[in-house]
Amino acid sequence: MRIFDPHIHMTSRTTDDYEAMHAAGVRALVEPAFWLGQPRTSVGSFLDYFDSLIGWEPFRAAQFGIRHHCTIALNPKEANDPRCTEVLQHLPRYLLKDGVVAVGEIGYDSMTPEEDEAFAAQLQLAVTHDLPALVHTPHRDKAAGVERTLAVVRESAIGPERVVVDHLNEVTVRQVIDSGCWMGFSIYPDTKMDERRMVAVLREFGTERILVNSAADWGRSDPLKTRKTGDAMLAAGFCDDDVDQVLWRNPVAFYGQSGKLEPADSGAPGADATYEGNSVLRGARAEV
Ligand SMILES: [Zn+2]
């Protein structure tokens, strides 16, 4: 089983996690820029973090045979902090970098006017830089958050096929399915979706335009939830090709819209051999 985790915060994880992920089949991932848990007090703290997402963390992942990509943004929570918003002016130079495959995580936390402004501005940045967008939905008042998210996407210049609305569940997926946006699901040990509920969603809504991620971070989470979802799909009667679509081809199709995935991410024959045991991570760019 080959796995591309489309949303995981490896900065918060250990080398044991990288080893276990590789053993489980994870060969590529996307690490979205997000909140650190503790508030940042200056823009410099963002810039150091972004630099680690495009430098140190891909190097670390490569030691374990996993290709690392990231998304860059001002996250929704810190969009409310005047000490942080100046980082918006620094985003364009990061969005040009290899390995930055989307603008994200953007969207809503508490649905304030400041978040409205940062969300709309960053969707426009995605358009300008020809990148897809990863949109976080709030954990509180989720249905209203998703509704407002879709309204902002509709009013923006970005095409819905270039947007993933993340952290959905059985209820909110119904709001997103007709929007044309991709649907992201985070599988957690004890909150939000679990793998059994995810299989039920796939049964009901099919395997198109769906991304499954572990969203593992510094909280209680499990970087192997992608694999566990694949196993649960097989146990429920889905075939290998369905699992491959959800856990590999869908994230490749979505983030491939950046034009920045490497040939190996498309699953080309022999692609594994080009990077296994090789710490050189960034090869030529390729359209996937
Ligand atoms: Zn996240």
Structure report:
This protein is of the alpha/beta class. 39% of the residues lie in helices and 14% in strands. It has eleven helices and eight strands. The chain has an eight-stranded parallel beta sheet, with helices on both faces. Helix 1 links the parallel strand 1 and strand 2. The protein starts with a strand and ends in a 13-residue tail after the last helix. Zinc ion binds next to loops.
Sequence-ordered SSE layout with sheet pairings:
Blueprint: E1 3-5, H1 15-24, E2 26-32, H2 43-54, H3 56-62, E3 67-72, H4 91-95, E4 100-107, H5 113-128, E5 133-136, H6 142-155, E6 163-165, H7 173-176, E7 182-186, H8 195-205, E8 210-213, H9 225-235, H10 240-256, H11 271-275
Parallel strand pairs: 1-2, 2-3, 3-4, 4-5, 5-6, 6-7, 7-8
The chain binds zinc ion (ZN).
Zinc ion is lined by residues 7, 9, 32, 34, 105, 215.
Radius of gyration: 17 Å
Taking the sheet with the most strands, its summary is: 8 strands, parallel
This entry's quaternary arrangement is: single chain
Q: Considering DSSP H and I runs of 4 or more, what fraction of the residues is helical?
A: 25-40%
Order of helices and strands: EHEHHEHEHEHEHEHEHHH
Give a list of the ligands: zinc ion
Identify the overall geometry. globular
